[in-house]
Input
Amino acid sequence: MTTTQKIFEHQIWHLLSLIFLILAIKLYVSSSPEILDGLFWGISTNSWFWLAIATPIIHQIYVWLVWRFELYLRVFSNKFGTKQAFNIYAVGFSFLFISRLITIIFLAISSKNTLHLNPIIAYVFAALITPLVIYLFYSVKKYFTIERAYGIDHFDKNYNEPYVKNGIFRYADNGMYVFGLMILYLPGLLFLSEAALLVALFNHIYIWVHYYFTERPDMVVIYGDAP
Output
């Protein structure tokens, strides 16, 4: 397999999965156009909605390209050195990750009160989700480390740590994707926004596309296996 083939390995499945998800979203929205009613900062809910959809797509394409070019060609480490290359990448990662939540918050505000659900039930769900999210981020910081969550193993050739089985990772090998993205449901629940919940669900499904077609194959290359 050539280097180019390795960089693009499994990405056709990534693309097809993304197309399927977008089509499903468009079908749902076309059947319930009222969920995109509203305005925030002079910008329509429809615009906030598609911006919130575009953000995780940009984020995951960014991670795929940086990870694969670094893993197979050392493009960024050769230019900047391992530490600086990782730090530069981490800034972009952080910006895009935070943007996922911010765009959903703005979308939720723009389309508030479009969810036909008793507010008490929505707030109970939010209350149940919050401790799991807090425990996840605590477990990442204490046991998994932020650097590993960002993908330091793609940059540092000497990085070789065992799989974490402490904290929330005792209950789920991939706790970040199972529990971490639950934070994205909170704006939709708190503002009663169906559109924001739909985007949160898209994020939650799409992160598994990233896992199976980018992260897991890379873990096999780096560690020889993957959970």
User: Anything to note?
Assistant: The longest strand covers residues 39-40. Residues 194-223 form the longest helix (30 residues). Residues 51 and 103 are 7 Å apart (CA to CA).
